[in-house]
């Protein structure tokens, strides 16, 4: 953490915290209920942060008013899907920077001392851990922390499990059930006699739970993120699967070999802006390549690797099918089969999205990979 400074009858300071990688504000002014949206928006665009000391609900209204002003500059469709995607991502980063200039102050007990403020202590403690003094955060981020706590409490229903999975803050939630259904329906290798399976990049642990429910003897789930590992352990316990699912990390592959190795890497080969982006962006396709290059040496005879991957990157022009197949072949693997499914998420129906046609055509596949046997 770094430190921000401001004057409020006297010089004051607080630690700065940003999960989304927002830069440290260099200039901070105090704002309250008298602050007009036009002024707040201008100051934020100029790089000045506003530390809110008024009514919490008024702060939310101000943030919405600022967001409407940012939205007026949203890009439309460009010449190619790849350029449209890049422009949209650049705009989202700009929007996050502007809205991230409206700050609130959390005390050492994770509380928020503002009129009509909700009790955020549990949500903040779960997301950020212990404080050793006051901490300044963007209001937009705090609202995300509050929302994540609600998701964690109520859970996400997963039809393939007929049960709830509870995502933690910063862990990708399994709201897109189609990829989970593929893992639930694909024929298990070795005639169904799968003694050990690896789930690489487990996240909430949803795919590990599906494999365990399908009768796999032992599922070893890995993740680079400590938050994800804690989340997967929590869900395994909630589902009564702690005797079957073991969570480890941060290495991608655990020790030993498996009859089945499942990997659902981030689908977009781009640089994540922060740790919160790791569920979507795979810098340089590194996780995908690591899964493929390590698979042959980790499979038991007759075993399979299941690559669960959307073709959205291909449709955006960020990766080609030829590049994917070349990576498979270079790893000494072959495609034994493939199952496809279409997306069912809400963005498919959003005709105002400049990338609507690309998202509507998206296909998610489960690629069944086996080791190429040397010729006699």
UniProtKB/TrEMBL annotation:
Family matches, as PANTHER family: HEMK METHYLTRANSFERASE, MTRF1L RELEASE FACTOR GLUTAMINE METHYLTRANSFERASE
Protein name according to UniProt: Methylase of polypeptide subunit release factors
Keyword match DNA-binding: no
Pfam families tied to this protein: MTS (PF05175)
PROSITE patterns linked to this entry: N6_MTASE (PS00092)
Keyword Transferase: yes
GO molecular function, one term: protein-glutamine N-methyltransferase activity
UniProt cross-references to Gene3D superfamilies, sorted A to Z: Vaccinia Virus protein VP39 (3.40.50.150)
Keywords on record: Methyltransferase, Transferase
Organism for this UniProt entry: Streptomyces violarus
Methyltransferase small domain: residues covered: 194-310
GO terms (BP aspect): methylation
SUPFAM superfamilies linked to this entry: S-adenosyl-L-methionine-dependent methyltransferases (SSF53335)
InterPro entries for this protein: DNA_methylase_N6_adenine_CS, N5-glutamine_MTase, SAM-dependent_MTases_sf, Small_mtfrase_dom
């Amino acid at each position: 953490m770094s430190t921000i400074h401001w004057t409020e009858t006297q010089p004051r300071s607080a630690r700065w915290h940003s999960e989304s990688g927002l830069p440290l504000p260099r200039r901070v002014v105090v704002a309250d209920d008298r602050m007009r949206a036009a002024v707040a928006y201008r100051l934020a665009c100029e790089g000045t942060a506003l530390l809110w000391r008024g009514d919490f609900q008024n702060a939310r209204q101000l943030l919405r008013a600022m967001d409407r002003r940012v939205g007026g500059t949203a890009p439309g469709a460009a010449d190619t899907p790849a350029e449209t995607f890049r422009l949209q991502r650049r705009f989202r980063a700009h929007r996050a920077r502007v809205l991230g200039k409206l700050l609130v102050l959390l005390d050492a007990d994770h509380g928020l001392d503002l009129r009509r403020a909700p009790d955020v202590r549990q949500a903040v403690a779960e997301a950020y851990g212990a404080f050793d003094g006051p901490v300044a955060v963007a209001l937009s981020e705090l609202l995300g922390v509050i929302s994540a706590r609600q998701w964690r409490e109520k859970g996400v229903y997963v039809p393939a499990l007929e049960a709830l999975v509870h995502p933690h803050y910063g862990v990708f939630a399994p709201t897109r059930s189609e990829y989970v259904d593929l893992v639930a329906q694909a024929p298990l290798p070795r005639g169904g006699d799968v003694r050990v399976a690896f789930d690489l990049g487990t996240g909430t642990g949803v795919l590990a739970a599906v494999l365990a429910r399908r009768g796999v003897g032992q599922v070893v789930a890995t993740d680079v993120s400590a938050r994800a590992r804690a989340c997967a352990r929590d869900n395994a316990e909630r589902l009564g699967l702690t005797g079957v699912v073991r969570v480890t990390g941060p290495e991608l592959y655990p020790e030993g070999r498996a009859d089945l190795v499942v990997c659902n890497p981030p689908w977009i080969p781009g640089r994540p802006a922060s740790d919160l982006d790791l569920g979507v962006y795979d810098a340089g396709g590194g996780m995908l390549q690591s899964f493929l290059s390590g698979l042959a040496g980790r499979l038991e005879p007759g075993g399979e690797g299941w690559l669960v991957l959307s073709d959205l990157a291909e449709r955006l022009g960020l990766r080609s099918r030829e590049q994917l197949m070349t990576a498979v072949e270079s790893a000494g693997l072959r495609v034994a089969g493939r199952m496809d499914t279409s997306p069912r998420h809400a963005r498919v129906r959003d005709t105002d999205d400049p990338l609507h046609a690309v998202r509507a055509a998206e296909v998610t596949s489960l690629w069944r990979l086996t080791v190429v046997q040397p010729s006699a």
